[in-house]
Amino acid sequence: MKFKLLSCLIIAFCQSGFSTPPAKKSPQFRIIHNNDGTDALSNNWFDLDKPLAVSDINNYVDMVSSTQVTTFMMNTGSDFVYYKSKYARTFCDDLEGKVACNSKPETVAVWKKYHRNIKNLEVEGTDVIAASLTRAKKNGLEAIVTFRMNDLHFADSTQFCAWVYPDFWIQNPQFWLGKDSQGYNSSNALNFKHAEVRQYKLNLIHEQIEKYDMIDGFDLDFMRFAVFFKPEEASENAHLITEMIQNIRLKLDVEGKKRGKRLTLSVRVPITIEGCLQKGLDVKKWVSMGLIDFISIGAHWPGETATPVAKFKTDLKNPKIPVYGTIDSGGYTPYEFYTHGMYKGMASHLLNQGDGIHLFNYYFDFYKRINKEKIVATEGGLSCRYAVPSLLKEIGSLKTLESRNKIFCASDGTTPAYRVLQVADLPMGCGRGKKSNASIFVGDDVETVNPEEAILFIRNDRKAPFDVEINGNRLAIQKADYPAQFDRQKGLQEGEQMYAFIVPAKFLKKGDNTVSIMATGGVFMTKRLEIALKYGSVDTHGYF
Fold it and tell me: What pTM, to 2 d.p., does this model score?
């Protein structure tokens, strides 16, 4: 996190937050906290140099448990297993020097730290998955293992250390996709067309279902990373993934019967039904066959600011299956982290359209370890750009989000990694003589709870004159200093121009709001649209 931090504000209410969890209207409601495990194995929350202990994991899970979160998901490392496995070498185990490593010395030190902490937990009779989920269960949370179906973080032997590669991947290059351009490391992705690949994945999944007897369910994360077949072969091979889902559902039923409870099976998939099929994921069939219990949708990192949950639910045509939208750790671009106001706006969007929220990689390291539990604002003083536990005490309920300062965003259309199908109005070309229209969903009932001020932020690819309307009402009042004050210039590229217009509250409505832009000079491209709702000062109504 390299953004400049200038002013430090310790806000009392942010430390205490909203302590009352939202009432669960139905078993469908979840606020999911998904942890990838590497921040745990590095002890990134408290002290990077301190050997990890179960007490550290307990303290971390406790931070999550005292919020509105209902469900704790823990990544097992998937192919890069964080435990002793019959089918894979433990993450960063060099087998006493038998496995080579070509990384830089500082990177090698990180790999060693991960393995050291895995061994530390072994001494205490546990591992990072068991310790985390046991504590979550003790604290009253639903506990679920999440498995990344084709993790490509380290699938490049020219750049990384063999300590982090799964042996199956290293030893079987004949199962790699090869000559693929879907995204980062996709040429080296395992091809699920091969029975050996599918069986290897199933072996690990079965092992993990059997090993972690405290779990309430198992999650299959198809978004890390969204590539399983060659693009031209995905649709014809979708039945192979469906057969895997059937196999896993049967395994969960068998184990659940032994434990006297139903074990849920969930999936995290692309944001449209069409996009799922494009990847060989026949989600509608899984639902019709009764194989899965809930679905999370999201974009691959960096993230999606306007996940079309309502469209997905409509296209799914099965209102009984809960659908949760993902809020990832990324922003519009890599490491352009979301602000608190964006988190609140996205949460309101998802809760209005779907059944809950799936928080992915919601890291506390900057807040807990670096800033010693202080809220540090960005230069304008109105915004904060790192995750804090107190936000988890308000984003899980429309009631606690009411009258909180927030920012609603249109999708900028620039996050379709791995060729995942995207639904977005932006970027949008604007020319003379014709209105170009885009939509921003506002989750607040602005007619009932009036904000003190509403601001429309527009980012264009160049400076050029234009007229703008919202829901057919022309906007006239500009605030040239607002983009900097509200930290809306983050990631601004050369030549791009930010604009801020005051929006009378009577022009807004709950739901989709149409922004119309017409160039009055040269043509340009609108790249971002955001609506900020200000209900009060940051010390009483939260950061933007």
Answer: 0.93
